[in-house]
Amino acid sequence: MAKILRHHPSNSTSEDDDDGTDCPLSGAEALAACKEFASVTNTDSGLAMMMLQQNGWDLQRAISVYQGLQNKSKSTRLKTTPKTSESDSKRMKSKEATTTSEFNDDKTKVKSRFKLLSWNIDGLDEQINTTETRIYGVIDVIKREEPDAVFLQEVIPTAIDLIRSLLPEYDSYAGNVKGYFVVILTRRELFKVENFEIITYPGTNMERNLLIVH
C-alpha cells in the first residue's frame, strides 16, 4: 500500500517557537478566562485557549476580536449570496432532491473531501500549569472538527495518554515515548494502516526524527 501520510516534525526548542503568547495569568485564572470566553461566545475551551493566546490573554479583547471575525464572516456570506429566479429555485430544489437521494443510498457514498488538521500544541509550555487544560482544548477541537488525519507537534507523554483515551476513533502513532515528539492520528473508519516507521535524523542533538505512516 502506498504511504498515506508523510510528516516532517520540527522538534525545535520552546525558544525557537516562541510566538510571544506567554500567559501572565495563574493556572486558575487562565482556566477561568477560557471558561468565560467559551460561555460568552458559545464555543469550546480549545477555541477559547487559541483566541486568548493570540490576544495576550486579554479576555475582552479576545471576545471582541472573535465577534468581529464572526460578523465579518456573516457580512461576506450575505454579500456573496446570489439572487435566484423562481425557475432557478425550482431547478435547485429538483437538483437537491436528486442529490439527497444519491447520498441516502449507502452503496453510492463516496468521500470526496479529505480534512487534515496540523497543530503545534506547545506541550513544553508548563510554566503556568495549564498543560492539561490545553490538552483538553486540543481534544475538544479535534472532536468538533472531525478531521480525517491529525499532525501534532510538541506532544508530551501526558498528552498522548489523554488523546488515546478520549479519541478512540483514531489510531495514534508517536515519534517517541519521552520528552516531546510528533504524533500522527488517523481515523480508523477511513485508513487501513499497515505499519509505521521512525527515521532518526543523523547528527541531531535534539532527538529529531521523521515519522512515516504507511
UniProtKB/TrEMBL annotation:
<dbReference type="GO" id="GO:0070260">
    <property type="term" value="F:5'-tyrosyl-DNA phosphodiesterase activity"/>
</dbReference>
<feature type="compositionally biased region" description="Basic and acidic residues">
    <location>
        <begin position="85"/>
        <end position="96"/>
    </location>
</feature>
<dbReference type="GO" id="GO:0006302">
    <property type="term" value="P:double-strand break repair"/>
</dbReference>
<keyword id="KW-0539">Nucleus</keyword>
<dbReference type="GO" id="GO:0046872">
    <property type="term" value="F:metal ion binding"/>
</dbReference>
<protein>
    <recommendedName>
        <fullName>Endonuclease/exonuclease/phosphatase domain-containing protein</fullName>
    </recommendedName>
</protein>
<feature type="domain" description="Endonuclease/exonuclease/phosphatase">
    <location>
        <begin position="117"/>
        <end position="195"/>
    </location>
</feature>
<feature type="compositionally biased region" description="Polar residues">
    <location>
        <begin position="73"/>
        <end position="84"/>
    </location>
</feature>
<dbReference type="InterPro" id="IPR009060">
    <property type="entry name" value="UBA-like_sf"/>
</dbReference>
<dbReference type="Pfam" id="PF03372">
    <property type="entry name" value="Exo_endo_phos"/>
</dbReference>
<dbReference type="GO" id="GO:0003697">
    <property type="term" value="F:single-stranded DNA binding"/>
</dbReference>
<dbReference type="GO" id="GO:0016605">
    <property type="term" value="C:PML body"/>
</dbReference>
<dbReference type="GO" id="GO:0004518">
    <property type="term" value="F:nuclease activity"/>
</dbReference>
<feature type="region of interest" description="Disordered">
    <location>
        <begin position="1"/>
        <end position="24"/>
    </location>
</feature>
<dbReference type="InterPro" id="IPR051547">
    <property type="entry name" value="TDP2-like"/>
</dbReference>
<dbReference type="Pfam" id="PF14555">
    <property type="entry name" value="UBA_4"/>
</dbReference>
<keyword id="KW-0460">Magnesium</keyword>
<dbReference type="GO" id="GO:0005737">
    <property type="term" value="C:cytoplasm"/>
</dbReference>
<feature type="region of interest" description="Disordered">
    <location>
        <begin position="73"/>
        <end position="104"/>
    </location>
</feature>
<keyword id="KW-0227">DNA damage</keyword>
<keyword id="KW-0234">DNA repair</keyword>
<keyword id="KW-0540">Nuclease</keyword>
<dbReference type="InterPro" id="IPR036691">
    <property type="entry name" value="Endo/exonu/phosph_ase_sf"/>
</dbReference>
<dbReference type="InterPro" id="IPR005135">
    <property type="entry name" value="Endo/exonuclease/phosphatase"/>
</dbReference>
<keyword id="KW-0479">Metal-binding</keyword>
<keyword id="KW-0378">Hydrolase</keyword>
